[in-house]
Predict the structure.
Amino acid sequence: MKAALDVHYGRKGATAACVVFENWADAAPVEVHRTTVANPAGYRAGRFYERELPCLLAVLRTAGREFESIVIDGYVHLKPGAGKGLGQHLREALSYPVVVIGVAKNPLKVADRFVPVVRGRSAKPLFVSAAGCPPSAARKAILAMHGPYRIPTLLKLADRLARGG
């Protein structure tokens, strides 16, 4: 199984969403999970993982299963000297082998080892990175995901669920 994760921060905490699916081309999830984290860490430049990682781990515990692949909103790798990306922190925090694919909507100067991926009719790329598989395999997976637009259907669903929809 695979999972698409996202987190949204509000005044009363953070909501993390997990969209579970079986195949990259799936149009609908097998199941969805949401959890609330009451007091997430504040944002600190260069240490985004301190805020986001506990929320991702919380929703993964709610899902109660191990995944072969997890897709996150963000980068997996940062340039040397900048630390690790959120995806690498997530992969290291899990007790099982997993492919983590990062899909970022915006470029980040300190990001490293990503490939631009153009989907649908959009001229604006997604920035895809991965740990546990080559970037080319991550690119292929994101291109195979359902949806005619820049953001794949199930990633959009994870975002909507995290926002409370």
Observations:
- The radius of gyration is 15 Å.
